[in-house]
Amino acid sequence: FAGALTMFKAPITEWAIPADTHLPQVELNEYDTLIQQAARAHENVIKGFTVSLEENQSPLFWYEQGGGRGISLNSVIRSASLNEHGEVYSSVSEQNVLGDLIDQLHRTAGIPGKVGHEDLGVVIMGIASALYFVALVSGVIFLLPTLVKSFFSLRQKKGASRFWLDTHNLLGITSLPFHLIIAWTVVVFAFHDVIYDGLDYIYGDEPMFQRGGQSSDVYPLSDLPAISSFIQKVNETTSGYRVKQLSFSNLDTERASVRIDVAGEGVLQRTADSDVILMHPFTQQVTYSTLSSDENGGYWPLVKSLFALHFGNFAGTFGRWVYFFLGLMGAALFYTGNLLWLEKRRKKQAVQSTSNAVMANLTVGVCVGSMLGVAATLLSSKWMYISGQPVNQSYLWVYFTVFLLALAYSFLKGAARSAIHLQLLLSLCCACIPVTTLISLVLPAVSWRLTASNLWVEATACIFAYVFFKGALKTRARALRGEKNSIWYIKDASVDSPSASGKVVPE
After folding, report:
1. Residue 425, CA distances (Å) to 102, 332, 419, 430, 437 in order
2. CB 423 within 8 A of CB 471
3. 488/507 Cα distance (integer angstroms)
């Protein structure tokens, strides 16, 4: 579920940020003036800054606090632009990392801790994905004749279990290539250091990826070439790419560098939404590039394809929506698979085994609870700004508090009841997201953008609210009218009293 949302990580973060956080863009020929004026007014500029060419971002920004690699919850960003008189002005705000935190949840399953310099959750996800890959392949081999025979068959008249089995099989077969790709690429991501260490025995002292030499000279900021010249150089060496932003770092040292993020349509890209070119910022010598080239060798296209296939960035916006729905199908596949497995495993008896009950509670608590945690985090975002709370720290508190409470509730009330109640609460959270936006529009303290991408976030929340509400109704109908010995059955109020035989109908 988090992985599906990560396909639109940037729009979600933009949706969460107030309108006054980003300053107006400037003309291309004004960036150089802006940089020099900002450097004279703020000493942190020389340490590093980012020039953005995107309309939904400030033209120039840098870290006043925090920064560096990884997610920093306490980073403070200063944005700068030029007023109508050509003079620099700036504003300070906490960096919002909502999209990055959802991505981190996706990569680590919310499991904290480190193993060396790697996240423990990433390693566990790598092991789980390897097992998942084996399960997918073996499941298809064993069940393929049956699956082909009943493909596209949704036999509602043969009972709820048969209908859910047909739905599960339909989801699994139609999205099988996607899940094979995701499972395999997650294994590569989780154990890439081990893979690279193994390749050292093949490459020996020869580097796997060629990097250009670094200059040992230190240059003054006044010698920085025009921003337009960087764009021109990218246009001369690439085809079909546009420059998104340029991130300069260590400009007052011999390790000066500029990272240029370039985006292309219909091409495999190394990061989630761009390729990367590294240059020396003063000599403009290319030191590294993720673009496919002869210098990178034959191994590089394989590495790049693994990243691009996982990120789904090779087919533009359409591809992201396809991956979004396939990700949701994966969540549904896992949930329905667990329900079917529990039904298959249980015996036809009134009292279910403890292990079966625990697994059912975990299925509801973890699956629905994690989605509820994400929805509650999104819902809380604008209220954090309105109330003046530190947003990033609050995101973590909201997610883990809601998730753990949902998990506890599933054990307190049982799988059947908690599945209904948590889905209703999830529907309510999603419905309140656009309601919160409407309320915030009339509050003078904070203003928000109403861009097309922001409206898509609101619309998607409404769709989720409807889907989870219908899911709660379907779950309730099965719980009241299903097989009485099922772990998903709830005793109706009309049968709470002893029956004519003097026996109490089991719950």
Report:
1. 20, 18, 10, 9, 19
2. yes
3. 9
Question: 3-class SS at 486?
Answer: coil
Calpha distance 497→493 (Å, rounded): 8
How many Cβ atoms from other residues are within 10 Å of residue 352's Cβ?
19
pTM of the model: 0.85
- Answer yes or no: is pLDDT of 245 > 60: yes
Separation between Cα atoms, residue 259 and residue 241, nearest integer Å? 15
Q: How distant, in Å, are the alpha carbons of 154, 188, 369 from that of 168?
A: 10, 27, 21
Per-residue tokens: 62: 């840098």
Alpha-carbon distance of 245 to 355, in angstroms, equals 53
Bridge partners, residue 49, by sequence: 248
Q: Give residue 366's Cα distance to chain centre.
A: 18
**Residue 281 in contact with residue 205, Cβ under 8 Å?**
no
Q: Which residues contact 436 (CB under 8 A, 6 or more apart)?
A: 379, 382, 383
Beta strands in 309-415 (DSSP E): none
- The C-alpha torsion from 438 through 441 and 445 to 447, rounded to 10°, is 120
Name the 3-class secondary structure at 263: strand
> Does the CA dihedral 270-274-280-283 come out positive or negative?
positive
* pLDDT tens readout for residues 204-229: 555 555 555 556 788 898 899 999 99
pLDDT tens for 118-139 read 889 999 999 999 998 898 888 7
Assign 424 to helix, strand or coil. helix
User: Which helix or strand (DSSP H or E) is residue 312 part of?
Assistant: none
C-alpha–C-alpha distance, residues 142 and 159, integer Å: 24
Q: What's phi and psi for 62, nearest 5 deg?
A: -155, 170
